[in-house]
Write a structure and sequence with these properties.
- This protein has helices spanning 11-30, 38-45, 49-77, 80-98, 103-120, 122-132, 137-148, 151-190, 224-228, 231-260, 265-286, 295-315, 319-348, 353-382, 386-427.
- By secondary structure, it is mainly α.
- It is built from 15 helices and no strands.
- The chain folds into 2 domains: 5-204, MFS general substrate transporter like domains (Growth Hormone, Chain: A), CATH 1.20.1250.20; 224-427, MFS general substrate transporter like domains (Growth Hormone, Chain: A, Up-down Bundle).
């Protein structure tokens, strides 16, 4: 006789491992590799860097706009078809990028890539984790984001090597093939909508082990309209909006800040890369704390960690201050994304997770788009990055306060979730 399904390894972990591979590939090709192609394309077309990065900014803005309907689709139909078709489109668009011959075509391709980003990057993956896990959600998010954290480490050097050996057009063809092979079959064959489709409950419990809400197997959820009318959502959005402003502005302007203070260009570039490297241990250490401590308090600690890192950069004018900044800010940077995903799931449950997360992502994409430009204007106005860093420190501190307020307001949200779930059970 075959073993009972509940005794086999939980399929949710298969999904997490699969998404770890596909997210690494998708982020690596569609996001991180872009920087490698700026100079070779400039040599071919003589476009300015500002002109080319404008296409990338357009893609990010469109991904935020499309994220709202994508979230609704995920809540209603699940991720399998969307992520499979998105991966097919992504590979074809990278091939189209390899064939562009003018600026209009380049912008059209990247506008389409922006739409595809909403279908294949973190947001749909987080919907899967929110649906398949409850008690082990923090652990699942840690594993997923840790694996995907290697996207820049793998694909930026790989893209550079391919450009040297194949030219930028040939490199994009190779990356398109890698993207197709590393995402399409996995999304099509492995993804499933929910554990109930396999006769399971979240975290791998079998229905025979308990049913209903008495044992906590039924997670309470809020519909998107109710969530958006609650104060907790807007405080949560404000917290992560402020954090996104700071992170986006800093990554763009960190190298010129360091060179302005007498550090060499190579040192400045290496330091900026190390921030991303430090994100990996940050995810391993900070994200699982949300399973043991209130997640809002953990998010508050992450924001305060980043504020302290900025103070080190401002006040300790030495290499030690820079390294201290890298360690602390990188750790916080790595933990922010899974913390946001876990908080949305904890506050609102899995049923409307995609829609609620899509609305939140829309605002955060706006922050990513305006932060670098706003920081540049502030620098041009003051002639220094000092005012910017103080402002970012204040923003991180305000984010810490806002997420605590969101956590306190969420207590009322939890009561509404209980009422909504009770109404559904009575209606059933």
């Amino acid at each position: 006789m075959s073993r009972p399904l509940a005794r086999r390894p939980y399929y949710g972990w298969v999904l997490v491992a699969t998404l770890g591979v596909t997210e690494t590939t998708s982020w690596g090709v569609l996001y991180y590799a872009f920087t490698v192609f700026l100079d070779p394309m400039r040599e071919s077309f003589h476009w300015s860097r500002a002109t080319m990065t404008g296409a990338f900014s357009l893609a990010l803005l469109l991904s935020g706009l499309v994220g709202v309907p994508v979230g609704r689709w995920l809540d209603r139909h699940g991720p399998r078809l969307l992520m499979t078709l998105g991966s097919c489109a992504a590979a074809l668009l990278v091939l189209a990028w390899a064939a562009v011959g003018n600026l209009l075509a380049f912008y059209l391709v990247w506008a389409a890539i922006g739409v595809v980003m909403a279908a294949v990057l973190y947001e749909p993956a987080f919907v899967i984790v929110a649906t398949w896990f409850r008690r082990r959600r923090g652990r699942a998010l840690t594993l997923l984001t840790f694996m995907a954290g290697f996207a820049s480490v793998i694909y930026i050097p790989l893209a550079g090597l391919l450009v040297v050996r194949q030219g930028w057009r040939g490199a994009l063809v190779t990356l398109a093939i890698a993207l197709a092979a590393g995402t399409i079959p996995l999304h099509a064959l492995v993804l499933r909508r929910r554990p109930q489709d396999l006769g399971l409950l979240p975290d791998g419990a079998a229905p025979s082990e308990g049913a209903g809400d008495a044992d906590g197997s039924l997670e309470r959820s809020l519909p998107v309209r109710t969530a958006l009318h609650g104060a907790a959502f807007w405080w949560l959005m404000g917290a992560f909006f402020l954090n996104t402003l700071g992170v986006s502005a800093l990554f763009v302007h960190l190298v010129p800040y360091l060179t302005d203070h007498g550090y060499g260009k190579e040192f400045a570039a290496n330091v900026t890369g190390l921030v991303g490297v430090m994100a990996l241990p940050g995810r391993l250490v900070l994200t699982p704390l949300g399973d043991r401590l209130p997640r809002a308090w953990v998010a508050c600690a992450i924001f305060l960690l980043q504020a302290f890192a900025l103070l080190l950069l401002l006040l300790v004018q030495s290499g030690a201050g820079v390294i201290g900044f890298v360690v602390l800010f990188g750790a916080g940077f790595g933990a922010v994304t899974p913390a946001r995903a876990a908080l949305v799931a904890e506050f609102y449950g899995p049923d409307s997770y995609g829609s609620i997360s899509g609305v939140l992502a829309f605002f955060l994409t706006g922050a990513r788009a305006i932060a670098p430009v706003g920081a540049g204007i502030l620098y041009d106005t003051t002639g220094s990055y000092t005012a910017l860093l103080w402002l970012l420190t204040a923003a991180s501190t305000a984010a810490a306060v806002a997420v605590l307020i969101a956590g306190s307001r969420e207590q009322g949200t939890g009561d509404r979730r209980l009422q909504v779930t009770g109404d559904r059970l009575q209606g059933a």
